[in-house]
Batch of 4 targets.
Target 1
Amino acid sequence: MILVFVLLAIIILLLLFTYIILFSTLNIQISDLSFANYPKKQKGQYKILISLRLWNRFKWLWFDVDKKKVKKLWDKIPMQKIDIQKIEKDFMMHDFKLLKKLHLQIAAFHMKAEVGLESPIVTSFLIAVASSLLSILLANTAKNIKENQYSYSICPIYQNKNLYKILLNCIIELKMVHIINVIYILFKKGKSDENERTTSNRKSYGYSYE
């Protein structure tokens, strides 16, 4: 009898945890992320807060990442073991279409940028393209258009040098159910590709003779 109650409690806890995961939102808050190569090369003391919020209200899991933690994590990654060519082969261009299924939302976005290239013409073109892309991105991902929630400026630097200075503050939200759905699609695709390779190998051996 006790074993039945234990199993029932485990099942209830698993169902509860599954419910919490499915109805949670991944919230990524980026503060003071800055990059600049003038007047000298700079990297700001940024901070990234990653949290899970049930119904996008109740924060039940969170951790923060700063410059020191990123550096420690980066130092531990064995870069020589990462097969870049394999990653490029496995991740095709059409996989970018899956990004739409994530239904990414930007709850807040503030960016100030100054960019300059050696050619003034290319600089002007780059500023125009970047501004247009940002407008399209925010038009499709902005969660709620409120006063002072979204702002950006990209100013050109005409000094015939490659210069940049970027300061970013933003909040990105992704529903866990959409993330799980994309992971499932990628997993299913990987299994399908593996089965196709196995079938192809069997056919090639089927027509071979000793």
Target 2
Amino acid sequence: MTSGIACVSQGLAGMNLIRADSDISLGVKAYAKYHLFGQDFYLTTTHVCILIVMAIILAFAIAVNRAAKKADPEKAPGPLMNVAEMLVEALDNLTVQNMGPKNAPKFANYIGTIAVFIFIANISGLFGLRAPTADYGVTLPLALITWVMIQFNGFKHQKMGKIKGLFEPIFLFFPINLISEFATPVSMSLRLFGNILSGTVMLSLIYGLLPKVVTLVWPAALHAYLDLFSGGIQTFVFIMLTMVFVADAIGDEETA
């Protein structure tokens, strides 16, 4: 039975109906190796894709900056300025709704930055890249930055109330409350990483197992869902959790 299946598989591969397993790549590849401070460092697919994503964001920012300088306040803005204004206004309104008008200006730039970076990174698969957020080494630092911001604002605004809250409602809840504090960056990073990685794996398998002619058309619908829709949803979830956790650390009296 096994030999029969193997013969069928080899026959399909020979007819170019499926690709060889060696063509399927799901992991991160290393392009170069460096030895520094007694440790080996690698230039990987993730680093290259991050640089490309950053270059895209930087090019967009420079283009918007030049368009803003040349804009005539007495005339209607061009398409690029319309897109930029709509993006900034949407992110500012979202920050105000979740963090309050008093704190929104303090965090709007950070929320906007991670929103743009995560979204572009998530949808980079549309341009043939391996999404950087499919690497846990990218999503964990993003979540840790948010976690540090949560703790900083918690101690800044609640002071010793932050420590007191770990023992509420009773002393026995201290271990559970402490674990929940450290679980925040883990859950945020794993949620983003898992969703983007699953889409990357599915598309890699499809491109690896289907004939090239079919992959020119059919996976477009999957790219629209796994890259564009799912990437947008995960971006929204990450920034929403960031705003909610930070606002909760600040306290209701500060976000009114």
Target 3
Amino acid sequence: MTSEADAVSGIAAALAAGKVRDAIEQAEAAADRGVTHPDLAFDRGVAYVRRAHGADSRPGDLGRAAAAFEETLSLRPGDTEAARALELVREEAARRRARAGGTVDVVEGPGLARTAVTVMPEPAWEAMAVVSSLALALAWPARRLPRALRSAYVIAAVAAIALGLSASALAVLRHTRATVEVGVVIDDVARLSSRDPRGAVELPEGARIDVLGRQGAEVRVRWGGREGTLPATAVRVIGRAR
């Protein structure tokens, strides 16, 4: 058996036997070795959820569970079980935060530009760019034909706008993928430090954030429209943004 298969089967066996601590230790040791697999990440999330509900619960367990389920989805997009588990974990973290007297923050989106370009997947934007380029290339010479003059200009104008939108979207997506990593807040309390006083907020446990860079013991992050720094220990990096 491969190291990956050994890790997956070992963690599953520990969970089946009710050995939550062993499952977590094995999962974290596998992650430290660079072993990645969607089943391994999912079982790690299950283990942290079980510990969060047990007598041995620790602060940040729900955030670590959320990070594990996010990792599952990054490795196996469309996993409905992992998506539902992630939703339930974040809901529970919000309830615990409310019971403790904290504010239940509205989860902020990735910002207007990122939201706009993620309306369609990258291949769709690429196809739009190709079709727009072809339409522009065909319409421009057609303007010399008297009967096609008006139609040619309309098609060329629409194609030029579509080409500009698709090119901009592709630039944002590719820049994001090259420079931004996805992270999850794993501390029960993580205060975002910012030069702008309005940006200094407490991020909810389990929140998905953009990791923009690392500065020693801190990471520079973005959450919605807010940017600042968090201790590196408060964030689990999942991988490059998609």
Target 4
Amino acid sequence: MKSIKGIVFDFGGVISAAHDDTFWAKALALTGWDRDTIWAGWRKHRYLLDADFVTPQGLYHLIGQDLGTSLDGKTLDLLAEMDYDSWAVPNPETLAWARELKDAGYKIGILTNMPTSFIPWFNRAAAEFRALVDAEVISGEEHIVKPDPAIYSLMAARMDLNPNELCFFDDMEANVTAAQACGWQAVHFTTVAEAKTAFAALLG
């Protein structure tokens, strides 16, 4: 049996629900862009937001700039608010599982790519989850973004555990692979049911 003592969760798409069709319908109608364009822009520029180097308005300005288009300030403000609102939807199944893990004696942590401007939404969406948490690392506060190995080292230090005593759940495969390279156990998160099955397999 692997000696896992701490469970660390990503926020977006794990503690919170993923973007739903309501967000996409509004965003595409507002910008005239397609979904693939926004995904490509996020992949290219989102680390700047998560490291607190640009605002959410700045992120969408960069995406538009890549397309040779310019969005006005009101549109950028609406996009920023819609983006943040879409992440602030808690996943009750993850919360219930985290409570089970806490009751079983595991330390609980949050390791998330998140700008500091999102923290009011984070406080609202994750208040019950954060009540369980022993340590957290927010990328915007540290100016370090997953999958940088430094952010995993910082999280392990705050959890006061060795990397091989930690298990990480993230919905982005690159972040899971990076955690594994740092000596963590890590699982690509899709649903709580699948995460539970994968975790049980890790425990043997």
